[in-house]
Amino acid sequence: MKILTGNDLVSGDVIWWAGDGWSRQVGDSVDVGTHGDDLARTEEAALRVVGAYVIDATITDDGVRPAHIKDRIRALGPTVRPDLTLKPNDADAGNWVI
Amino acid sequence: MYRYDSYDQSIVDARVEEFRDQVQRRLTGALTEDQFKPLRLMNGLYLQLHAYMLRVAIPYGTLSGRQMRKLGEIAAKYDRGYGHFTTRQNLQYNWIKLADAPDILAELATVEMHAIQTSGNCIRNISSDQYAGVSADEVADPRPWAELLRQWSSFHPEFTYLPRKFKICVIASDDDRAAMKLHDIGLKLVSRDGVIGAEVYAGGGMGRTPMVAPLIRDFVPEEEIISYLEACLRVYNRYGRRDNKYKARIKILVHEIGVEAYKRQVEEEFAHMRTLGLNPPTEELDRIRAFFAPPAYETGLSEEIDRADPAFALWVDRQVAAHKAPGYAIVNISLKPLTGIPGDASAEQIELVAGLAEQYSLDELRVTHAQNLVLPHVKKADLHAIWQKLEAAGLAEANLDLITDIIACPGLDYCALANARSIPLAQKIAQRFAAAERQAELGELKLKISGCINACGHHHAGHIGILGVDRKGVENFQLSLGGSGAEDTSLGQITGPGFSEDGVVDAIEKVTDLYLAQRESGERFLDTYRRLGMKPFKEAIYG
């Protein structure tokens, strides 16, 4: 599947296109098919995202999983600071990245 | 320390307000990201993996307690409670909101700090020796020249859009603690017949094409240093490549046209510069130099250090260096706790160190390119009290220049350019070699990790260097041996095929085991490697 990601213009937070808006959770991502680039342009023009780009991902038992490690780290947060990730109470959350 | 005059302050204040307007226009859509990006980069604001990142300049690595305290306050108020000290003697905040950036810059301006020229193809923050002004072997304090260069290079209209970024380092000792020859231009202050001047090295650097800077002039009198650098930069600005960013650094120019051709062109330009009367007024250098006059050290101080506590004695032996003034010492504060992140410091730790600087170090501290901190003016009688406070704050690791004193870039955990994670690897290596006895047995061993070819972790200059690469989406690590960023500057050589994260830790153990088995009396790891060459190390690693 193709999913769309970028950073929130104001906060810089990593965000994922969820079909009807942006989410902080990669698991909310939807397949954008061939419309990702158009969506990116529209959303950037609307000042809701910066640096938007389309990536490959798969659906797994754990939900949406970006194909590349860089995007999995973006999805989770820094693996060396579990307290600052989206799963601060899960010390092993970084294993999902690898 | 240097203090802003009204010109400095008004320039920085004006820049803050200019950027505030630019941010506002971005937030309202008057500026597109393509238009805004070069403006934010000129103010040190990047967009990284997780958020905006702000890089704050710490000129030549020197800070007052008040400035350090402000850095901690910003970390607590605008970031997530910590900052990252870099190999460029700067500080980076990882979690900045765009709307907050102008307020942060305004707060920095209140303590005479900024983020100007911490990005972009301009002359970056001038780096220097963390022992400047307190080392007995220096010919002069290099910081007045570093400050003069800061003023010369700030908003220099001719050098704001160079072919590529440009890094300058100034030292004044035979011992190179600042990787001087791995800068675009390195200056080493020397004394000739009682006259201060500089040896000038040009065309060094790391990155994807590492080079050690050759000497291009063995003496430039101090009053002509600016004019000579102006000539160096002019030649680079004129002939440096702008068609390929990977070949745009001055090192490529010097390499492609040859050292002699570059020197000749610089000399021709220098001869022209001499006719223009651009040397800074002597009074200006004297004005700057006065800010760096040696402080009023107390006399009659005791040289004794009570070493009754073994843990304290170990810390003293490793972290404390000789000071030029009797009764004083230089304290190195490790930012490399064994389970921590190299270069990171919490807001509370930053605040603590600010207080230590104010109370015990004549209100001054330094940041090192090895991502540690220094209290430069400490009475030996105060060492125990300082150690106790550092220990309580998790800052009393005794590992300076040992295998666990690892330089590591932020890597793929934070950096949009990175290919692999540097920090988890640094932590695994630190854990493997955690035993103090083992570290001491290995002695000086500088291990440096970069998460990509840009080499922010200085892996080319590591006695042991590690480069993280991407192998079809999987992290892989190349090992190199024999690099040095010191006065014996050399570039590491790759051992062979790369490793997984665990594999490279095992390989390091094999390399260090071989060193221990083969070393001769007094040899550091680097010395043994240089004597034996790569072959036995390669055999030990790959069998």
TrEMBL record, chain A:
InterPro entries per the UniProt record, alphabetical: DUF2849
Pfam family, one: DUF2849
Protein name: DUF2849 domain-containing protein
Classification lineage: Bacteria, Pseudomonadati, Pseudomonadota, Alphaproteobacteria, Sphingomonadales
UniProtKB/TrEMBL annotation, chain B:
GO molecular function: sulfite reductase (ferredoxin) activity
Keywords tagged on the record: 4Fe-4S, Heme, Iron, Iron-sulfur, Metal-binding, Oxidoreductase
Record flagged with keyword Manganese: no
Highest taxon in the source lineage: Bacteria
Keyword Iron-sulfur: yes
Protein name (Swiss-Prot/TrEMBL): Nitrite/sulfite reductase
Group of enzyme by EC: oxidoreductase
UniProt domain Nitrite/Sulfite reductase ferredoxin-like: residue ranges: 52-109, 341-393
